[in-house]
Amino acid sequence: MDWEKYKEKMIQEAFKQKKDDAFVSAYLLYAKNLFDQNMPVIAQPSHASALMGLKHSYVCKMAYAPEHFYRRFTIQKTNGKEREIHEPLPDLKKVQRWILEEILSKASVSPYAKAYVKGRNLKQNARYHRAQKALVTLDIKDFFPSVKIHDIYRIFEEMGYQRNVASFLAHLCCLNGVLPQGAPTSPCLSNLRMKDFDQRVSRYCAENGWRYTRYADDLTFSGNHSVRALITYVSRSVFENGFRLNPEKTRVARTNACQEVTGIVVNHHMQVPKKTRKAIRQQMHYIKKFGLDSHLEHIGETRSNYLRHLLGRINFALFVNPKDNELREYAVILKQIYHDDTIK
Description:
Blueprint: H1 3-16, H2 21-36, H3 45-52, H4 56-64, E1 70-76, E2 82-88, H5 90-102, H6 122-127, E3 134-139, H7 149-159, H8 163-173, H9 186-193, H10 195-208, E4 210-215, E5 218-223, H11 227-240, E6 251-254, E7 260-261, E8 264-265, H12 274-290, H13 292-299, H14 303-320, H15 325-342
Antiparallel strand pairs: 1-2, 3-5, 3-6, 4-5, 7-8
Helix pairs in contact: 1-2, 4-8, 7-8, 10-11, 12-13, 14-15
């Protein structure tokens, strides 16, 4: 439907409801802004529920008593610590996916954001910092939980949604007043929350000879200028935006050290870290020398989990460097073992 048809239909409906001209003019202005962004025009919270295909009373429970619509579990991080995940139950997940697909996916994010954006990935994030004199990596502490519900409300309001609708949508995307890690809407909302920050920091970098990208909560800078001034400026900017840096994860690497960006070495050509390649090579040596079953018995691993994990590490290394013939050979061997297992 084009705008003129929508406008005509809306005026007819307003006439039936005996709305005055002031209301019609104000609503058309509101609707045109959203229509031009290809976002759904939502008159009020109950209208949002209707567009989602659910009863409004039920969606209200999801919005205002969300603790009943999530399951909590933990996953282990690479440093051995646990990350808390809150996964929405199916109906809330359906609602959040509607918000993501119909609204959030239409909003533009910063070009410096390399995570959770179609066509951008870890490799693209790392490539931008290849072969630089200095590499600085900073990490935002407790990233998702630091994004508050009032931040999400402001995102929807700035898109053009009126206050009651923006508030309703924000509540549907939050748990305990913050962005839950595990909801399908959270990654995109985190990028939108960081849009102003990315613009502010990128301006400083452009003026001071630094390259900048952000992969979720990982901030990466490369160049050959004052590292102290950079870290001071970024730390202040992070704090003023309502976040905190994790000082344990601040890294500065010169050309004579291993320069690593989100798990990818970027000193010269891109490659996974040497320790990762060594571990893969060692495991494949034992598999070829003693056989998979003997190797698994020795290390106390189950067959299917081990194969998937090792093959995943090899596939990631090949994603980073597709020309690595040694790893390509390992992948062929493991895929054949995995195939033989599945047809037994």
